[in-house]
Every structure is written in C-alpha cells, then in structure tokens.
Specification:
single chain; alpha+beta; 60s Ribosomal Protein L30, Chain: A; five-stranded mixed β-sheet; four-stranded mixed β-sheet; globular
Length: 154
Amino acid sequence: METVIVKMGEIHVTQGEFLLETFGVGSCIAVILHDPEKNIAGMMHAMLTTDKATQTQMTTNPLRYVELAIPALVKEMTKAGASKQHLKASIAGGAQMFTLYHDPSNAIGPKNVEAAKKALNDAGIPIEYEDTGGTKGRNVRFELHTGKCVIETK
C-alpha cells in the first residue's frame, strides 16, 4: 500500500489502496473527506483562518487557509469522481499549543476548528469523526481501503 504525505498548506486526493498521512497537526486543522461509494479520499492540512490574512497572502497560497482549502478539496474530490452527497468528513487538530495565547481572540486552534466546521456545514458535508482541541499535537492517518481515520496524540 502506498503512503501519501500531506504537508502543511497542501491537499491530496487519491483512490484505491492508499494511506493518507499528515504530521504535526497542532493548532492547524486536518480535514479528511471520504466518498465510500467511489472509494475516493482527500486530505488537507491548513494552518490559519483568513480573518487576518491579506488578499496577497490568500492568493499566493490559498491552501494555507481553512476557509479556502476545504472548498478546494471538495472541488478536487468531485473532479476525481467523488459524489458530493456521499462525502463524509473527519477533522483533527485545533489544539491550543501555546500558553501565552490565553486571549480567545488569539486562539488559532479553536478558530481553525470553528472555520472548518462552518466550511463543511456550508458545503453540506457531515462530520463523521472529530478529534480537536486540547494542548497537544496530532499525527493523522486515513486508510482508504478501510475508511478508518487513525489519530495519534503526541
């Protein structure tokens, strides 16, 4: 089985006997979309919300931003043959990694979780599995052949 590593600011869509993995998901958010009918899955690893980003930053690397990466992932999934009405989501991350950011207005992790949930809701995609919050990072693995999401807290 081939493993595909999804890095920060990336998305990847695949079909068949693949393992999608991303590492070091702290305040970032990882979203996995899966169409079990077509056996297609995709993963994204976004770092921030767009609330403090400039237009230039969002244009230069839109996949760094939760609100832009999720629609891009949905688009790539449907281009690969997935049916939007069959998509299910798993989300992980959104930890509050740094104790100096106790001010909720600076809480990157919770903002990322909120933005991901809103984007998925807006797209009509239910969240099947969630492992978010806390203060520790995670490694995320999605086994396409089983449809299983494995999240390891570090």
